[in-house]
Amino acid sequence: MTGQVEFARMNGLGNKILVVDMRGRPDMVTPDAAIALNADPATQFDQIMAIHDPRADGTDAWIDILNCDGTKAQACGNGTRCVVQALSAETGRKTFTFQTVAGILNAQEHADGTISVDMGKPVFAWDKIPLAEEFFDTSRIELQIGPIDAPVLHSPSAMSIGNPHAIFWVDQDPMTFDLERFGPMLENHPMFPEKANITLAQVTSGDALRTRTWERGAGLTLACGSAACAAGVSAARTGRTGRTVTIDVATAPTRQPLVIEWREDDHVVMTGPAEWEWSGKVDPVTGIFDRDEEPEARAN
């Protein structure tokens, strides 16, 4: 199937997102289109959030998520907030229910413009994350980078929240570590058969963290919502913080924090901003796009 569809360039705390409207079409955004779009500086992105017609009763849309290398992602919290803002602007609605390969996501836009996404329940079982080795306690697994007697990074907390995550706890600003060098090695470490998102997390107070993330399939990104959720849950799980934390994403351009709440019902709720940048039309097969004229005319 050919022809262009509507899309928007957005960001969630700096996480570069393309929201593509695939409703009314049976096909998908192709990996070739994703790679082509990422190769153009104007449309370079971390994730594509492709909105499809709902597949399950009681849901508003099926969301297909692609990384910038054309591979599939199971979850993207920052991208989900962008989808909510786009659909809210279109329909005037404030609450939505989405289906992804990771499960059902409920989301709500608040009066102040922030958006909350229920990311579901965290997964801690080693074979469900998954890990290549059995660990009874995945809040601290045996994995390190650097010399045995003086590792640079070691003993991460592992979990899944749609995507597999490893959280390495550091005592100094995550920006001081060469994550661009360590990230690819850790993402592709044999411990992670489906690869993993790698986050450095520093506890800055009893209810606050500072993080930096190397995303599976996307590389060093300005922000990662599911990684913020994983860091918040892992901090509470290891007794470093309580169950509600603010996340200062070290690389986010606006430095507006995310709020992560690990509720008593085990669901993880992430609250933060989303920002529309511009819109256009794109061929989901080839990635060839046209940018709309006068994008500044769109009302926020």
Key features of this structure:
300 residues, alpha+beta, Diaminopimelate Epimerase, Chain A, domain 1, 18-stranded mixed sheet, 4 helices
Description:
Belongs to the diaminopimelate epimerase family. Its main location: cytoplasm. It holds the Pfam family DAP_epimerase. Keywords: Amino-acid biosynthesis, Cytoplasm, Isomerase, Lysine biosynthesis. The chain has four helices and 20 strands. The protein is of the alpha+beta class and 300 residues long. The chain has two domains: 138 residues, Diaminopimelate Epimerase, Chain A, domain 1 (Roll); 123 residues, Diaminopimelate Epimerase, Chain A, domain 1 (Roll), CATH 3.10.310. It has an 18-stranded mixed beta sheet that branches. Helix 1 links the parallel strand 2 and strand 3. It is globular, with a radius of gyration of 19 Å. The chain starts with a strand and ends in a 9-residue tail after the last strand.
In short:
By secondary structure, this protein is of the alpha+beta class. The protein has helices at 31-39, 77-91, 179-187, 225-237; strands spanning 5-12, 15-21, 47-52, 61-67, 72-73, 95-100, 103-109, 115-118, 144-145, 153-154, 157-160, 164-169, 197-205, 208-215, 219-220, 244-249, 258-262, 268-272, 275-282, 289-291.
